[in-house]
Amino acid sequence: xxxxxxxxxxxxxxxxxxxxxxxxxxxxxxxxxxxxxxxxxxxxxxxxxxxxxxxxxxxxxxxxxxxxxxxxxxxxxxxxxxxxxxxxxxx
Amino acid sequence: xxxxxxxxxxxxxxxxxxxxxxxxxxxxxxxxxxxxxxxxxxxxxxxxxxxxxxxxxxxxxxxxxxxxxxxxxxxxxxxxxxxxxxxxxxxxxxxxxxxxxxxxxxxxxxxxxxxxxxxxxxxxxxxxxxxxxxxxxxxxxxxxxxxxxxxxxxxxxxxxxxxxxxxxxxxxxxxxxxxxxxxxxxxxxxxxxxxxxxxxxxxxxxxxxxxxxxxxxxxxxxxxxxxxxxxxxxxxxxxxxxxxxxxxxxxxxxxxxxxxxxxxxxxxxxxxxxxxxxxxxxxxxxxxxxxxxxxxxxxxxxxxxxxxxxxxxxxxxxxxxxxxxxxxxxxxxxxxxx
Amino acid sequence: xxxxxxxxxxxxxxxxxxxxxxxxxxxxxxxxxxxxxxxxxxxxxxxxxxxxxxxxxxxxxxxxxxxxxxxxxxxxxxxxxxxxxxxxxxxxxxxxxxxxxxxxxx
Lengths: 91, 338, 106
Known about the structure:
The complex is a heterotrimer of chains A (91), B (338) and C (106).
Chain A: H1 4-28, H2 32-57, H3 60-84
Chain B: E1 2-3, H1 9-23, E2 29-36, H2 46-68, E3 76-83, H3 92-106, E4 110-113, H4 126-133, E5 139-142, H5 148-151, H6 160-177, H7 182-203, H8 210-243, E6 252-257, H9 263-275, E7 279-285, E8 288-293, H10 296-304, H11 306-316
Parallel strand pairs in B: 1-2, 2-3, 4-5
Antiparallel strand pairs in B: 6-8, 7-8
Chain C: H1 3-28, H2 32-57, H3 61-91, H4 99-105
Helix pairs in contact in C: 1-2, 2-3
């Protein structure tokens, strides 16, 4: 029988693989927006992976890392979209 | 007023119309908007520039109509013209000559300049142009407008409920992330106070009211299961589309004029549209939503208006939910091919 | 493992499925708008399910509260980010892909 923590770690690994698939889109583009979307998805997957690792090791400190990562991930997309458009006005 | 595409053009037009409205009480007012062409009409790229110029002037005319409102005061007339297509214009002096000539022709007694006016491309020419224009015997003024991004009303008068709400929310969030040691209560208090002092004036568009927010939250609870069902359907659809070998999609951008008002409802509707089957809000201006739809079927659902109705129900209550759906309002979705 | 733990794993696996759909969507779909569909919907649901599973797996109350907060936060921000990017793309005049484009290519 597998332990719960092992299963959670395996699923976290799956999310890392999905992030790598998204990394392909970051490389290929073709437009800058495709890359940003892909980076956003990678960031989301990273947050999920961190949350799963936190659950697997029962370390709530990792959740703080995940929270800050999620905040930064959102900020990245918004800031990028905002400054990529002339004179702002995205949100 | 000489016009050229700039960030403050819209506000300058608004200012000019405003001035005209006050001046019209003393007699009829004629507004002239001129675009100055930098190339001669015989040059190869002139047709393109002239087309752009007339398009810009048309836009300005529409703005003027918009600013004059539903019943425009009598006595205001609008003229537009493209100048300088008969010669090369190099220096600010040339531009000033062209403008003054036109001003003398039609009898303009006041020239208003857009503070970001720069017809010569990247080179700033507002100051020299202003100087040159004063050679003529007309009144020259720079419109007192700020850049649009700075004029939006961001700060509103703060009040005690606002401070309390921001303080409470910040303190709760801080304590959620803290380790519940005695020192954390103190630092959290200080941080929350700082956040409340800085952010309370900008955080709300209207007074927070426990009753209204409570009612909205209660109705939100009814909305959530409906939204969850829609989200589940949306994801199964995406999964089907993405995993299908032939990628069966038919994307198109459609426009929807939604019957919701205010920041929070519009945001909720936009995010809900994004989360529900096959639709993604691309841009929102006031009430006009540009929505990218993945398949033809999702467009049908969108104009059926059930989601819009649900959002209205959450924010305004039962009566507002009865407003007709977009299709019944005659907004069958422009841009939809057959 | 207990039945509860099996439930947690099932939830996380379902989330992983939608995370995979999002990754495949980013990989396969033809333009930025359609990719934003995948990023906003599938990835959000994948995140909500998986972080929900993590919240259940965490034992102490405060950690679960944090995980739930993370879940709500991602639920709100993911569609917003996708919307912002799509809007930036539209502002820059990027045309959406349509069926005609494909017919033109083949």
